[in-house]
Structure formats: C-alpha cells, structure tokens
Amino acid sequence: MYKILMTYDSLEGLDKLLVHKDFTIEIHPKPSIEEFKKLIVGCDGLLIRSEVKVDADIIAASDKLKFIGRAGTGVDNVDKIAATKKGIVVANVPGGNTISAAEHTIGLMLSMARNIPQAYQSLKQKKWDRKDFMGTELSGKTLGLIGLGRIGMEVAKRMLAFGMKIIAYDPFANYEIAKHYDIDLIPFEDVLINADYISIHSPLNDSTRGLINAETISKMKDGVRIINCARGPIINEKDLVQAIKSKKVRAAALDVFAKEPPDDWDIITTENVIATPHLAASTEEAQVKIAQEMSEVIIDYFTKGIIRNAVNVPTVDWKTYKEMKPYIDLLSKIGLFQAQVVEGGIKEIKLAYCGNLSNYQTTPLTMAYLQGLLSHILGMNVNFVNALVLAKERGIKITETKERQAADYFSLVKAEIITDRDTNTVSATMFSATMPRFVSINNLGVDIEPSGGMIIITNEDKPGVVGSVGKVLGDSGVNIAGMNLARKSAGGEALTIIEVDDVISKEVVSKLEKIEGVKRVAPVRLEKD
Ligand code: NAD
Ligand code: MLT
Questions:
Q1: Has residue 332 got a pLDDT over 80?
Q2: Is 51 labeled as catalytic in the residue annotation?
Q3: Dmax of the chain from CA atoms?
Q4: Is 20 a catalytic residue?
Q5: Could you tell me the pLDDT band of residue 41, with boundaries at 50, 70 and 90?
Q6: What CA–CA distances, in Å, run from 215 to 107, 192, 231?
Q7: Ligand 2 center from residue 131 Cα (angstroms)
Q8: Contacts for 426-432: CB closer than 8 Å, 24+ residues apart
C-alpha cells in the first residue's frame, strides 16, 4: 500500500487513484509547517496545489517520500534541488489549465480596459454612473507578452482575433512558430517600450523574480496596463503601487500576489487595480483534467515505475520509453558491473551510444548507468532521480557521445570508467528486447548475458590456469554454470569469465588470486532477470 498525503480537499477527477487497491489517500488541507513535518512521515507520495510550500525542511522530514505531484503547472512552491538530491520525483500537470488560465487573463484584460468590476460595484450601490467608467478598446493596441509558452501562446492567438498586435519576449521560444502566428518575438526592452498592455506568462525563477520593477516600469509607455496571471513575485508590488499612483501605469489586473493570501493588501486596495484570488486555473474543466492526469501519473509511477511529467528528471514519452526500456535496464547493469570490477576512486565515465541508439535522447540511459554504478557504491538511496546529482557532487566527469556506426550491431553502447588506479570498458547490446549481451570487456570479445553471479578473472594466457581455477572452485563447492574465455593474442592477457550460481566468499577469491598466472579476481553479482 502506498500512502499519499493530499494537502487540498477537492477529490473531483481523482477517481482512479481513490479506488485503486494499492493506494491510501490522507487528506489534510493546508497543514501548518509543524503539522506538515509530522504528516509527511510515512508517506510515499505527496499531492499538492499551490497552498503549501514544500521546502528543504519538509523534504528532510520525510522518510519514505518518493513522489511529489503538483496538481497544476507552477512548481515554484517545491524545493526541487532538495527533492532531487533525496531521489524524489517532482511531477506536474502542465497544460491541464492552459485554456482556463488564458481565458482568465483575457477576462481580466477586458475587465480592466472597460472598468467592469468598478462599474459593477457602483451599480450594486444603486448608482447610475456612466461618465466615470469610460473604457478603451483593445483593438489596434499592442499586447506585449512576457513568456510565450502554453498560456502566452493561447492568449496571443485569441487576442489576435480582437485585432491586437502581439509582441513577445521569451528567450527560449521558437521564432518560426511565433512568426507563423504573426507574433513578433523581440528583446525584453522592446516589449517594454512598445506595449500598451503587458501580460506576464513566464515561470517564477531567478531570471523573472522582480522582473517588473521601478526600473523596467520606467521604460514602459506612459499609461501602460499590466496583467499578471503567472506568479506574484515576478512583479515588485511596491514599485507597481508607486507607478500606478504616479499614473505611469494606468491600471493593473492581478490574479497572483507576492504572498498568498497577502499580508500586505496595499496593491489590492490601490485604485485602478482589479484583482482575483489566484483563480486563473479554477474552472471545473481544468481541475478535473488535472486531477485525472495526475491520478494516472501517480499510478504509473508507483505501480509500473514509469516517470511522466517530471520536472527534475528528463523523461521521454511512453512510446520512446518502451523502445528504450531494454537499454535502460542494460545500462543499469553495465554500471552495476563496472562498480564491482574497478578499483580506486572514480574520476571519469565515458558513454558512447552507437547506431540506432544515437537517435534517442540518451540522458535517461546515462542516468540508468549511474544509478546502477552508484547504488553499488553508495547503497539503496541512489535512484534514477538523484544519480546524476550524486555523481556530479562526487566530481565524476561524465561524457556522452553519439556515433552513427555500431560495428556489426543495430545499437551498441560503450561504457568506459576511469578511476585513479584503473580503467574498464564494456561494450554491450541487445540481441533482442529480452536478450542483453556484453560483447566486449576491456576490448576483449566476450558473449555474456549480464545476469546473476560471475567471477571476472584477468589472467595470463598459459596452460593450466583455467584448470586450476576450476579445481579451486570445485574444491570450494562452487558450481560453474558457464564459462567464457577471451584473449587478445596467444600467451597475452586473457579474461576468464565464470558464471556461478551464488556469490563466492572472500576465502575463495583469495584462493583464486594465489593461482599462478591469475592477475585479478572480481566477483560480480547482477540481479537475475
Ligand atoms: P510554460 O512553461 O508553457 O511557459 C512559460 C514560458 O516562459 C516558456 O516558454 C519559457 O521559455 C518562458 N520563460 C522562461 N523564462 C523566461 C524569462 N526570463 N522571460 C520571459 N519568458 C521566460 O508555462 P505556462 O503553462 O504557460 O504557465 C505560465 C505561468 O503561468 C507559470 O508561471 C505558471 O505557474 C502560471 N500559471 C498560473 C495559473 C494561475 O492560476 N494563476 C495557472 C496556470 C499557470
Ligand atoms: C498553476 O500553476 O497551475 C496555477 O497556479 C494553479 C494552481 O494554483 O494550481
């Protein structure tokens, strides 16, 4: 049974998760920090919206946590670095609320342009006042978007139909796509200078925190109107209040705030500011879509080990994952193998993905390799999520290369590990989806199924060595399940790989090491398929 802690209480759309026999759900809406630290203990998964902050302390307090699911888009309320280090997947549901957020943005923009909230309030007070609420048309005006991702793009498409000219700043957006929709992707300053309306649709990160401040506002057109349905801290609220009071900024429409709910209500009570309490994603459709997708993401992760929508682990789509899965397992085995055969501190790892494999996004393969390698060295706390971080923390240099050619194979992976005393290389392939094979070790051709127990012996190629090895094993009661011999040239260095049913003891290793001509003995254990 997996225990999932939920910090909000809307169960709509979560049916699949709620009825699943492998999960129990505990609902504790908006726990205080102290409650949260206690509640997280014993939980395998955490399901949140934006109502809680999952900081390093909460993550440190968790003991079994493997998955944090953000039922929504923004994951700025999760300390992703702390989660990654602890091997916890952080996943969101991007896109589920895109249309809702875009429509809310447009709703606020229209409301602001036509003073709808103010006119409504006045009318409710039984005042028939028309002259105070003179509006302005959107048609013919320039809308400047900061962030042209999912929501920015949907806002742009709709506002083009309103006759607005769309300009946008987004350092990572695609020029061709923008051009196709008649959106001018231009530098940040040019958006500030030219826009009549500025709408923010970027994430909150180091490059966007406080992006709209006294200095950037001073570059904007006089009488500019600002909309923020992204994240509050992107705007310096004090600077915006000043700019509205000085009439530099004509009006602002805000759905998000520096602190939610706010301690300081100044921005909200300022005249010409219209506001909603973080409602952009609050539609029945968005919440159900998000909850349904998140249920599936959680179930897939815990019951099938499939990572989807992760923001701290590179993931691939389901079809690609299925194609890559045999190689993901193979890479993990190579890592585990090399961890057991090399001596010394690991300095460098070189992974070459050859043939068809070079067409794939290979980071998940590299992570699988590192997970196999480091789990042997560091223990059970290494997983797919934190393997790369742990390797980098240990100063291990990792290089990935891709080669079109794969010798005689469809796909081939070459792994070289360099320590301060040693080097080992393994080349491996899949003969079929269920037939992994090591085809060379230290450039000596082999044919090994990487599974179960093995003894890797480096020896001189001379008569009697293999016989002596067989005798020691036989005398020690070790059953030989298979044997593979490889050598570069007659009389040179050779490799004797013996498949055994069980792990051999230190005593047996030491007896083998004493055989004349044996240079090194490495017992290896790979999980049996
Ligand atoms: P997205 O990831 O699809 O788009 C964000 C875009 O911002 C990306 O294209 C990215 O390249 C761009 N970007 C990154 N850094 C930037 C920078 N320094 N300057 C300009 N652009 C930058 O995300 P989305 O789904 O469109 O969501 C956008 C924002 O809206 C997020 O902050 C999200 O949390 C927020 N959001 C709020 C609500 C709400 O209820 N108010 C609902 C949904 C999303
Ligand atoms: C989001 O990032 O998805 C929105 O802020 C909506 C929410 O709070 O869940």
A1: yes
A2: no
A3: 109
A4: no
A5: very high
A6: 28, 11, 19
A7: 37
A8: 426/334, 426/337, 426/338, 428/330, 428/333, 428/334, 429/330, 430/326, 430/327, 430/330
> Residue 146: CB within 6 Å of ligand 1?
yes
393-443 residue pLDDT tens:
889 999 999 999 998 899 999 999 999 989 999 999 999 989 999 999 999
Query: Is the pLDDT assigned to residue 318 strictly greater than 90?
Result: no
Percent of all residues in the chain with a pLDDT value above 70, rounded to a whole number: 99
Q: How far, in Å, from the CA of 77 to the mean position of ligand 1?
A: 14
Average pLDDT, stretch 55-69? 97
Which range, of 2-16, 126-140, 316-330, averages the lowest pLDDT? Answer: 316-330
**Complete domains list, the chain, with CATH:** 2-95+286-304 (3.40.50.720), 98-275 (3.40.50.720), 316-449 (3.30.1330.90), 451-529 (3.30.70.260)
Percent over 90 (pLDDT), the chain: 82
User: Strands across the sheet with 273-275, in order?
Assistant: 183-185, 165-169, 142-146, 197-200, 224-228, 249-254, 273-275
Rounded Cα distance, 371 and 367, in Å? 6
Catalytic residue from among 231, 237, 250, 308: 231
* Per-residue confidence (pLDDT) for residue 380, from 0 to 100: 59
pLDDT tens sequence across 475-510: 999 989 889 899 888 888 899 999 998 778 999 999
The tokens 């701290």 sit on which residue? 312
User: Strand order in 2-6's β-sheet?
Assistant: 23-27, 2-6, 45-48, 67-70, 89-92
Q: Is the CB of 72 within 6 Å of ligand 2?
A: yes
Query: Which residue has a Cα nearest atom 15 of ligand 1?
Result: 202
H helical segments located in 175-308: 175-180, 188-194, 214-218, 237-245, 266-269, 284-299
Give yes or no for a contact between 309 and 297, defined as CB atoms under 8 angstroms apart. yes
Atom of ligand 2 nearest to the CA of 92: 3
CA–CA distance, 157 with 168 (Å, rounded to integer): 12
**C-alpha distance from residue 369 to each of 221, 338, 524 (Å):** 54, 10, 16
Ligand nearest to the CA of 294: 2
Ligand 2 atom 8, closest CA: 50
Of 191, 188, 201, 200, give the one whose Cα is nearest residue 165: 191
User: Exactly one of 260, 393, 516, 527 is catalytic; which is it?
Assistant: 260
